[in-house]
Amino acid sequence: MDDLERRVLRIVEAYNRRCGRGPTYDELRDRTGRGWRELEAALRGLQAVGRIRWDDRGAESAKPWGNNGADFESGKINKSI
């Protein structure tokens, strides 16, 4: 997992905990300073390794894998990313 993927994953997890949804592309762009293509590649990479579920409706549909992040919070998912 590269630096951008780790950063995007942390942002997605934080949004899901605080807002109950994933961040929009605009919110990801503002927080990472990266463009749409780079963000889409990072989201696809995270999906490929099973770290998020994402259905291509937009970044806001990205969720940490399993129970809206409950698995991550309970320690069932490796937190050392």
Walk me through this protein's architecture.
The chain is mainly α. The protein has a single domain, classed as Winged helix-like DNA-binding domain superfamily/Winged helix DNA-binding domain (Arc Repressor Mutant, subunit A), CATH 1.10.10.10. Helices cover 53% and strands 5% of the residues. It has four helices and two strands, in the order αααββα. It has a two-stranded antiparallel ribbon with strand order 1-2. The longest helix has 17 residues. The C terminus is likely disordered.
Structural class: mainly alpha
Count of individual helical segments: 4
Distance between the termini: 8 Å
What CATH architecture would you give? Orthogonal Bundle
Q: Which assembly state applies to the chains in this document?
A: single chain
Helix content: 40-55%
Radius of gyration: 11 Å
Q: What is the CATH domain class?
A: Mainly Alpha
Strands side by side in the biggest sheet: 1-2
Total separate domains: 1
Uncertain spans: 67-81
CATH superfamily: Winged helix-like DNA-binding domain superfamily/Winged helix DNA-binding domain
- What does the largest sheet look like? 2 strands, antiparallel
Q: Bin the strand percentage.
A: under 5%
The overall pLDDT, averaged over residues, is 78
SSE string, helix = H, strand = E? HHHEEH
Strand segment count: 2
Write down the CATH topology.
Answer: Arc Repressor Mutant, subunit A
Form type: globular
